[in-house]
Each structure stands twice: as structure tokens, then as C-alpha cells.
Amino acid sequence: MLKRKIEQKLLEWKNTENHNPLIIKGCRQCGKTFIAEDFAKKNYGHVIYMNFFENQDYLSVFDGSLNVDNLVMMMSAVLGEKAIFVPGDTIIILDEIQVCPNARTALKFFKLDGRFDVIGTGSLLGVKGYRDNAVSVPVGYETVIEMYPLDFEEFLWANGITPQIIGLLQNYLAKKEPVPDALHNRLRNLFLQYAVVGGMPDAVNSFLATKQMNKVLEIQRNILLSYEDDMVKYAENKDKPLIKGCFQSIPKQLSKENKKFQYSLIKKGSTAARYAGCLQWIEDAGIIKRCYNLSLPELPLAGNAVDDVFKVYMQDTGLFIAMLEDGTQFDVLQGNLWGYKGAIFENLAADIFTKMGRKLYYYHKDSGLEIDFVVRYQGEAVLVEVKASSGNIKSTKTILNHPEKYHVNRAIKLGDYNIGRAEGNSPVLTLPFYMCFLLDEY
């Protein structure tokens, strides 16, 4: 079974006194249902499971009074002897809770009653349609956790890289010492594999069991088709073709030299007024993340973000590569991450940063200055460039040479090489790309 970080968060939730009902939200097929059921079976004597998407009859349980005694009676009637309610030892899982807005409202009553723990899961909780149909979101009576596909560290665990080995990597990073070749090469190969497999549990499990990339690709493309099906089924009629157009334009958006998202690339004559809500639908579904341009590359990053100038990345790089032409997987596994004008490399950084909980920012000026990412690291604004070993970092050098103007003193260059300095005592630290997930000191 794949080890997931969210398991610890669920334990912390359960062990918190007087805790709220829990909502686990995230994109489709990232493992929400599996993790909720597995956690429930390990930590409770009795599990009540209701999937509103698979069984529409369950909706009627929440049609009348939301008093907990009434809900217990209705669930017992619908589920029969499977429904055993023991205060303090029964958990109720409401899967695809967005399909039943009244069940979301009922979380307040479960909280106030206090006898039973409740976990709701949902893939499309924030999208326009489900969001607008919600009867009453129980503000203050639920705790929300966002779940992502496997991050790179979880992928390493699945491939036998222990926390002890990761601890060694952290020591090499702290001391700025090169990683020994054997370990460096092993991690480099795993990083390339993560790029093409991504973090969707079905894809990862298939890779671990078979190592057959054609099977992984089939799973990924089926997931992409399911995303498009959701756009057709659940979006408003007038928005359906526009949302699909936004989604299908992502490879084209990232293949440009300037990767700023342009609505005109979706369809000639397209405008933000017509498409902005459609792009928001895709983001709310957990499929993409925006990376906002900064007016200045300095803290506070959120305060310097330009709301209407951004790049768009897929939350899962494996799915992004699956959107590209056949043969791209092979190219990446051979170490060629520089296709699509660096889009694959950039999407990997966005993937890793997002799953760490980082918001994404970059810096671009019409004068030609361009920095791939700007992060808060060890209390400073730090430039992050994702480049080949010989990649040009002219913009980084320009900014570092003018601290009085940009208030930036450090930069990190990620690429296919070991730990070191760009030049002697340079403020630019070069790191192997697989260390990106260790940049977790805020």
C-alpha cells in the first residue's frame, strides 16, 4: 500500500479534542476515498460508508430533518445491518459529498451532536455549479484538508527510499556538499520516472507492479478523459465547450517562450471576460495551479502578486506529459527535460512546490527579465531557476547585481547536476532537481 502524508494529518484530526467533521477535497482519482476508508477501518470499530455519486438513493436520507437521531434512523433503514452506530467508535464517510448539498449542511448537526465522527470527500466541491447549489456550507463546523496526487517524496518512499536516506540528503543540502555518485544517480533516475509517472495512485501502482510505461500512459489518458467528462457533465451548458477549450490549450500555453497564459490562444478572439470563469472552473476542480507574476521579486510575495498576469501548470506532471505526443515519455526517461521550451521542467517544479503547500510566483518584465519561480526560503525572497547545466541565468545575475533595487541576495539553480556554486562564492546555489522538495524552510 502506498504511504501517504495525509495519514498523519488524519490521525492528528482524530486526536484533536472536540474536532469538527472533516472534508477531504482534491482532484478526481488522487486517492481520497481509499485513504478515508483505510483510515476508518484502522481507527474505528464501525464504518458507515455512503457514496452519493454511485447510489442516488442515499440522497433521500438527507431530504428531511437533519437532526442526528433522524439521520441515524434513515441510514439504518437504507443500509440495514451494516449500519452500526456506537458513540465514539463509529465513523461516517460521505463520499462525493458535493452531490448531496444537504449532507454538507448536516455536518453542523453532527458536530453539535458529537457522538459520531464524519469524513466527507469531494472532487468538485469548489466548482461553479456544485458550489452554487450548496444549501448551506457549515462555516466553522468543518475542517478542510486538500489532498493531492503523490508528491515526489511519497514517490520516493514507494520506491524504497527511506526517511533515513532523505535525512542524508538534507545533511548534504545543509552542508552544501555534493551527493555521492551512487545515490545521486539513483535519485536522478527516480526523478525522471516521477516526471512521467506522476502521482496518481493508479498510475504509480501500475508502474511499481509492471514498470510498463504504456500501461501507465493508458491510465493517465483515461484520467484526462474523465476530467473532460466532468467538464461536460457538471459545468453549465454555456461553459462546457469553453472549459474544454481552456483545458486542451495548456500544452500550447506552456510551449511558448513567454509562458504567460493568453486567452487568445484558446480560440482566436477569446477574451478574459469570456473565458476567465472557465479557467477558474478547472482550477477549482484541482486540475491546475496558477503561478502569478510579481510586480517586484521581494517579500511579501502575495502582496506583490499581479492578479491578472499568470502562468498555468498542471498539478500533476505525469498527466501533463500524457497530454503531449507519443514518445515524450521516452524522451524524458532518457534525461531530455528541455522539450517544450522547458515547460516539462517548469511544470515539475510547480508540481513539487504545489504539493508542498507553496503558492506559485514568478517574475517577468517586458524589458526581458524572466525568473521561473520566486519563493520564500529561510526568511528571504529567493530566485529559483530551472535550467540545463549550461542554462543561461542572465536575468538572475542582473537582479542579484542590483540588491538596492530588487532586495534579493540569493538564488537557486535547479538542474541535472550535483550540489555546488555557480561560480566560486557566487550567491547562486546549484542543486540537483530531485532536491526541490527539500526547499521547505520558510
Q: Output mean pLDDT.
A: 93
Q: Name the poorly predicted regions.
A: none
Tell me the overall shape. globular
How much beta, percentage-wise? Answer: 15-25%
Helix coverage percent: 40-55%
Main β-sheet description: 5 strands, parallel
Q: How many strand units? A: 14
Q: Would you give an account of this structure?
A:
This protein has about 450 residues and is an alpha/beta fold. It has helices at about 5-15, 30-45, 70-80, 100-115, 130-135, 150-160, 165-175, 180-195, 200-210, 215-235, 240-250, 250-255, 270-285, 315-320, 330-335, 345-355, 395-400, 405, and strands spanning about 20-25, 45-50, 90-95, 115-120, 145, 290-295, 305-315, 360-365, 370, 375, 380-385, 410-415, 420, 430. The strands form three sheets. It has a five-stranded parallel β-sheet with strand order 2-3-4-1-5, with helices on both faces. The protein has a five-stranded mixed β-sheet with strand order 10-11-12-14-13. The protein has a four-stranded mixed β-sheet with strand order 7-6-8-9. Helix 10 (about 215-235) packs antiparallel against helix 11 (about 240-250) and helix 11 (about 240-250) packs across helix 13 (about 270-285). The longest helix has 22 residues, at about 215-235. It is globular. The two termini are about 30 Å apart. The model has no long low-confidence stretch (mean pLDDT about 95).
